[in-house]
Amino acid sequence: MVVDRKILTLDEFTIQQMREYPLATGELAGLLRDIGLAAKRVNVEVNKAGLVDILGDTGNINVQGEEVKKMDEFANNQFVGVLRHGISCAGIASEELDDIVVFDDEVSNNSKYICMFDPLDGSTNIDVNVSIGTIFSIYRRVTPKGTPAKHEDFLQPGNRQIAAGYIIYGSSTIFVYATRRGVNGFTLDPSIGEYTLSHPDIKCPGQGQIYSVNHGHFFRYDDKVKDYIQVCQNKNITNGGPYTQRYIGSMVADVHRNLMKGGIFMYPGTTDRPKGKLRLLYECNPFAFIVEKAGGKATDGRQRILDIQPTELHERTPFFIGSKGMMEELEGYLES
Ligand code: P6P
Questions:
Q1: How remote is the CA of residue 248 from the centroid of ligand 1, in Å?
Q2: pLDDT tens for residues 144-187?
Q3: What is the DSSP string of 238-278?
Q4: Is 210-334 a CATH 3.40.190.80 domain?
Q5: Global pTM?
Q6: Residue from 72, 118, 251, 317 whose mutation best tests the ligand 1 pocket (most atoms within 8 A of CB)
């Protein structure tokens, strides 16, 4: 039996979206294609990292004060390289780079977008074969086209994002991205080297039974956060549970799972790190945009993540994200 199943590739999908918007210039589609290409190159190395001398540390320390793994550096170079030579991006910011990189040439200066990346989130898992991922965020620049991008193009609140997404390098390689029109997922088909639409119109379940938090920090959390975590532990069949605790230590994997199945992910501030660990611009904002477009919520414990006005490129924020119903229950404890 011939199965007539039209499987759209990422390019076919973005072109279809463009056809519905005659004013679209194709720059966003081109940007997503460039990001997808760089991710394919990263995917090849991630899949064989155990076989070639690309594991381990570079001996460098990044702006975060963290060891830069060879894969981190390789991934960063792929994204910077592809976008620098593309036609849709005026400049980038990256977890791996101290400052913004402005592609100061005539074509790039006339591009209307800038991008921010965590090129390889979950670096602590690189050498132990656990899922890792790339996170990206796309904004329209606010400085005049034709001039080099500037810091104010990057220090925009997350509610100004045009698109955001992630690629998860796991049991399969999935490219998920959101625009104002919704969230869609594409699985890489190695036989044709194309991302194919596998998760159309993703919606985050309103409720879930998975909570993700690092219990090792428990006694350094705020009392109200501890109260909510204990509520999660006490859930049973009569009050919406039982809940399961799942924490991979790779936010891309944890948030992706919760997005698909329902759940809540928390990286709260602690007594020693009140702002927590996760970065606002290229980790929390993109995921907040994606999960909100899928029907979920994301806050810093007090305000919507997407409404935070950034002041620094690498600033951190406490982070709570997930199913709307679970987030509202959490908010009830945090506001009590
Ligand atoms: P911890 C990975 O290094 C990361 O940035 C996120 O992907 C992950 O959720 C978090 O840190 C894990 O941090 O302190 O729980 O090991």
A1: 9
A2: 999 999 999 999 999 999 999 999 998 899 999 999 999 999 99
A3: GGT---EE---S-HHHHHHHHHHH--EEEE---SS-TT-S-
A4: yes
A5: 0.93
A6: 251
